[in-house]
Specification:
The protein is an alpha/beta fold and 346 residues long. Helix content is 43%, strand content 18%. The radius of gyration is 20 Å and the shape is globular. The two termini are 22 Å apart. Bound molecules: adenosine-5'-triphosphate, magnesium ion and fe (iii) ion (FE).
Length: 346
């Protein structure tokens, strides 16, 4: 198969082409800069930007892949979760392409896409393993046995803010812009990660070992900044950014390794936008090396939203002989991963 993947759930418009687990090429456009002044994604602006980006980005992906539109054998598209207005644009585009080419259409869960992204870099997914999804809207620990068969145990989630959301909110209160992850990392480079002892939530005995909470951390950073300003002291942005980043990384790594240990898993895969974070990648690698666990993290381009990861899932569904979803598929903005791949009727 030559599978076209379409992604539009948030502020990236992505098209990617995958064949037999191999990335042929992709095109991506982002409206992130249009949201910068608001400190977060504005759904209407995102939807309008998707509309503008669909045709040129599709063309870019075909050119990058050296594939003609007519060569596409299947179309896969993010049907949820995500911003409803944004998901609808990609879904409409994917339906139009599938209809025009008379090719089958598969709805794909956005988080299944994130989880599958790594196979494009490092080959077939492990038979089983722990997957940590850390993105703008999710912080989920999964025990994944088979993505295609939905054989997934959802171990835990954030109780409040997602990890990426914490980066975005802290960036906003430090006046660093949006998206928060890259700007905080840049600000943190020369900072001391032990300068401030910010809280590491949900790590005490008796706490849910697989649940996360980041709103207290965000509040602690806000209080620190307020106090410094009240006292007329300079705000050491680099130290605060580094200390905040370290607090997030410590919790993510501790819980992911705990899950590997508890469940007897030999492989940890970290995916989603926050997996682009260098401090997280470094610390996770050290911890996995020490524990004898194989760490898989995709390249930065495949961590944040993209169409290739959606094509990767579509390609797996096709090769597993799964029924397509059909053109009647509708958006499911709050789709649950464990039910992701059940083909909808029609
Ligand atoms: P979801 O996948 O949950 O629907 P999303 O699609 O918006 O959310 P992604 O595109 O996967 O999320 O990731 C975006 C998030 O990743 C943002 O919150 C951004 O701040 C964060 N991020 C991106 N790069 C980095 C980085 N280098 N360090 C930390 N966080 C990062
Ligand atoms: Mg994004
Ligand atoms: Fe995402």
């Amino acid at each position: 198969p030559i599978v076209l993947g379409v992604e539009s759930s948030c502020d990236e418009t992505g098209f990617g082409l995958v064949s037999n687990g191999r990335l042929l090429g992709q095109g991506i456009a982002s409206s992130a800069q249009q949201h910068a002044e608001f400190g977060g994604v504005v759904p209407e602006i995102a939807a309008r930007a998707h509309l503008d980006a669909v045709v040129p980005t599709l063309e870019n992906s075909l050119a990058a892949s050296d594939v003609e539109l007519e060569d596409i054998t299947h179309v896969a598209v993010t049907s949820g979760p995500g911003l409803a207005t944004a998901v609808h644009v990609g879904l409409a585009a994917a339906k139009a392409i599938a209809w025009a080419l008379d090719k089958p259409l598969y709805g794909v869960h956005h988080l299944a896409g994130h989880a599958a992204a790594d196979l494009l870099d490092h080959g077939p997914l492990p038979d089983k393993g722990i997957v940590l999804i850390v993105s703008g809207g999710h912080t989920s620990l999964l025990e994944v046995h088979d993505l295609v068969e939905d054989d997934i145990v959802h171990l835990g989630d954030t109780l409040d803010d997602a990890a990426g959301e914490a980066f975005d909110k802290v960036a906003r209160l430090l006046g660093l812009g949006y998206p928060g992850g890259p700007v905080i990392s840049a600000a943190a480079v020369d900072g001391n990660p032990s300068a401030f002892r910010f809280p590491r939530a949900m790590l005490r005995p008796g706490d849910d070992p697989y649940a996360f909470s980041f709103s207290g951390l965000k509040t602690a950073v806000a209080r620190t900044v307020e106090k410094l300003e009240r006292d007329g002291d300079p705000v050491p942005v680099a130290d605060i950014a580094a200390s905040f980043e370290q607090a997030v990384v410590d919790v993510l790594v501790a819980k992911a390794l705990r899950a590997c240990r508890d469940k007897g898993m030999q492989t940890l895969t970290i995916v989603g936008g926050v997996a682009a974070n260098k401090r997280l990648r470094t610390h996770a690698q050290e911890a996995c090396d020490a524990a004898g666990i194989q760490l898989r993290v995709p390249s930065i381009d495949l961590c944040t939203d993209n169409g290739a990861m959606i094509a990767a899932v579509g390609d797996m569904l096709v090769r597993a002989g799964k029924e397509p979803s059909g053109l009647a598929i509708s958006a499911d903005p709050s789709a649950v991963l464990e039910r992701a791949q059940l083909p909808s009727a029609g």
